[in-house]
Amino acid sequence: MTKGETEMNYTAPLPFRCACSPHDNCDEGQNFCETQLKCFASKSKDELGRDIENWGCFDKYEQGQLNCRTPPSNRVAIMCCEGETCNSGLQPHYLETPATIPANNTQMVDSMQLALAVIVPFVAMVIIILIIVYCCRRWHRRRMDVLNDREAQLYLYNGEIQATQVGDSTLQDLFDHSCSSGSGSGLPLLVQRTVAKQVSLVECIGKGRYGEVWRGTYQGENVAVKIFSSRDEQSWARESEIYNTVLLRHENILGFLASDMTSRHSCTQLWLITHYHEHGSLYDFLTRTVLDRQSVLRLAHTAAAGLVHLHTEIFGTQGKPAIAHRDIKSKNILVKKNLTCCIADLGLAVMHSQTTNKIDMGSNNKVGTKRYMAPELLDETMNPECFDSFKRVDVYAFGLVLWEITRRCSISGIGEDYKPPFYDLVPSDPSFEDMKKVCVDGQHRPSIPNRWSTDTTLTAMAKLMKECWYQNPAARLTMLRVKKTVGKMLEKETEKEHSIDIIKT
Question: How many distinct structural domains can be found in the chain?
Answer without folding.
Answer: 3
